[in-house]
Design a protein that fits this description.
Three copies of one chain form a homotrimer. By secondary structure, chain A is mainly alpha-helical. Chain A is built from nine helices and two strands; from the N terminus they run H-E-H-H-H-H-H-H-H-H-E. Chain A has one domain.
Chain lengths: 200, 200, 200
């Protein structure tokens, strides 16, 4: 599957999470749009800056349009139908999966070391959501949450392993994407959390 | 009017807002200088990173000197005369206007798409103030405020329209700058706010 | 002393401060690793972005490994031995000293103006700690603290002076590094603070 389809899908679902989260707060229309854009574009922007690539949505404004359209559509639906609050976790997990795998791929193609590439995947996956949650005055899901960054990191490592095995093509990308999504969903469903670290 | 005059004026008025806001808090001298610099240089720095340009104040240290001098002058005046609290909103609106139009122009000159260019203008205009307010533990003016980003975006679009009409020169820049300032001032005076978005 | 030795030492001690601070909070294992990485890599990352250099840990993954190893070692020690809380201030001061001088040197080598170079040193020295403290929900040490940025700025200016005197080599680097550390330690010990700025 071409990278830009994955990217546009990731941008759209993350814009949706921004609108759903901002909608629970008393934020004005412009603020909702800002939070949707930040959730959709934040992770990839940081990845591109760190990798010294041109920022993706500056070069190709389709991403900006996709984020705005997805945000406005969510807005329209949310005014008509009452959406259950936890629904928001599904597009969030989907965005995490798409962006993590995309970020890892892009870093690998620039010949980054596997440790750097996997971290770049995690950053792409989680950063937009962190800024979204901070702007909405929520504890970032990544810190409180059930297998959030762990899911992302596992998927990034799985992608790197399949590449090392010379597996390419759609399955080598789809499998780790699905893995991130399922690990995250399993984490939410069975409330699996990492142990907390407490110093003596 | 050359870009660097607009830029220096914007940097100076934004440094003033940083000192005025930090002065209401119990922050030490160094902290006040940091907040003045962040308010003055933050928006343009993010714009330059996103557009992959050299960061303006790294290349030309005059901007750094202008920010420091404006900050110190404000400091000196504020110790002699009691300034009314709301005064701060005037340099803030001026900085918003100058930086929005400057940011939009720079992006247009790099042949950015109009949607990207207008967003770049808004980012240049609002970002320094957002970080200033967050460091001072205030709700960012842009989120609580009366026609803040809306004023910036209108001005950016107006600039783009005049360009499309082949209007160049001082008026094509001055008109949208004045427009941003007046819309923001009207928003403050008549307390015009965007509707809040509330989901069902 | 070569720059990468200074850099690796700075990364390691800053990762230690991240683990020690996060260990006082109820943060899960992944969060502790993130905070250690941010403390270790944050300042240098911002410096490299501002100077339009390749980001140091993306180019050379040794820094990432050093941060992870130092973090894990601290974690292991902190589970065995009860560490006094204020111990954390010593690696923090060491990291401030190493990163400030390294940042200033790098900026000078790129022919930055001395004012820009000294600011770049301060940014390299303090930024990782600011993000670490914000993520741990603490007031950044740099704002509340005793001679924090002042120590960094003095050291940066001292390095610039020795360069201007054509002094090179190990002493010209070691002296300002030790100066930053000692000024900061003196500030903590005698509780020296800058005057607070209060507006009328």
């Amino acid at each position: 599957m071409p990278q830009d389809v994955l990217g546009l899908a990731g941008v759209a679902v993350c814009a949706v999470t921004g609108v759903l989260e901002a909608g629970r707060k008393q934020i004005d229309l412009f603020g909702v749009v800002v939070i949707a854009l930040v959730a959709a574009l934040g992770g990839g922007t940081l990845r591109d800056l760190l990798l010294a690539r041109p920022v993706f949505w500056v070069v190709d404004h389709d991403y900006l349009v996709a984020a705005l359209l997805a945000g406005l559509a969510t807005f329209a639906v949310a005014r008509l139908v009452r959406l259950p609050q936890r629904l928001f976790l599904i597009p969030d997990a989907l965005g995490l999966a798409l962006f993590t795998i995309l970020g890892t791929r892009i870093a690998l193609e620039l010949n980054a070391h596997w440790l750097v590439a996997s971290l770049m995947g995690v950053i792409t996956g989680v950063f937009g959501g962190i800024v979204r949650d901070v702007l909405c005055n929520e504890v970032p899901l990544v810190f409180s949450g059930e297998l959030y960054a762990t899911a992302a990191w596992s998927g990034a490592l799985l992608l790197i392993l399949t590449r090392a095995q010379d597996m390419h093509g759609d399955i080598a990308v789809a499998a780790p994407t699905v893995a991130v999504f399922l690990i995250r969903m399993a984490g939410i469903h069975w409330r699996i959390k990492l142990p907390r670290f407490s110093m003596r």
